[in-house]
């Protein structure tokens, strides 16, 4: 009996350890190991029945941003709190505020849902870093735009550090699923500098919430794929068939008359795509072409094509992992930034569009692609075009990993030996020459 209990206890502990390991690694990105979105609450003043707090969202992800229609943040109040007013954001629902006489709160829901205000709202509804429609840049692309903030006045919440209870069950959509938020943790109070930078002030209370992204939670299928080609092989390696899933996906041919119907390109509230019919059925295809091979350099052409008729990609990012990215000489039509997640290994880089030139990837159609060329210096000790060396190990678009073709389908170097027909002809020529010489000697 005691042995059975020990075995049962061992099984339970083993299961919990495995489950914990899986949950910890589920949102881990090896190319951005410290990337997350941190939501910070700073209580800046007390009110008769609660507090005023500044809520700041910092995107510390190097290459994953929040694009339109923007972020949505939610939580569950610990007590019976209400939101009296907000600046820089608003809740999507007011809830039941019928018990209040006179002043009516902005929101009375136990689980409020907050969205950013749109650009152009009156100045008395704005604070710093607000009102961008929920769009937040990635930290690697533009650190100054990788932040969003709003102010909230909370009532029925307590008026001291001992009576205030932190909210629970934080959620973040950015704009779709994929983010998992941990519990709020009380941290040392934030300090602020006055505009003249001569005096420091301090928040009355601060707590942080950390949210991490998992592509598996966002979608069961990839959202992009990669194809390859090279100057030394006529064969193009296409994206894998149904790389992004082909189950019950409606698509439209590029020459369909439906494309001329007014409103067909208008994005839907559920972000349902309208894809061009392809073998891979992905909204994004990245094509990597090995263009030229010089004595000391080699050249790659990168093309990104949008197959979604309903979505323009703003502030897009492309991340590639390749051992020769430590010797990038020039990038011609994209901006480039090396990513060094592990300090000693410089094999990852981020490409993104030049502002006002190609930072907008248009919807599917003639203008639905951006492209650039990259010049890389060879490392003579390690450089080789054999066995797929010229192609990337990983490719990410907008922070999601793209599906690569099977390695055995990569463009291969042509065989150095002559073709079979040439060998036969050469052997026949040698044989004829030998017979001629024998006959010539015989008749001398």
TrEMBL record:
Keyword Membrane among record annotations: yes
Annotated transmembrane regions: 424-443
Superkingdom as given in the UniProt entry: Eukaryota
Signal sequence bounds: 1-27
Residues in COBRA C-terminal domain copies: 223-408
Gene Ontology cellular-component annotations: plasma membrane
Membrane recorded as keyword: yes
UniProt KW keywords: Glycoprotein, Membrane, Signal, Transmembrane, Transmembrane helix
GO biological process: cellulose microfibril organization; plant-type cell wall cellulose biosynthetic process
Family the entry assigns: Belongs to the COBRA family.
Protein name (Swiss-Prot/TrEMBL): COBRA-like protein
Organism annotation: Iris pallida
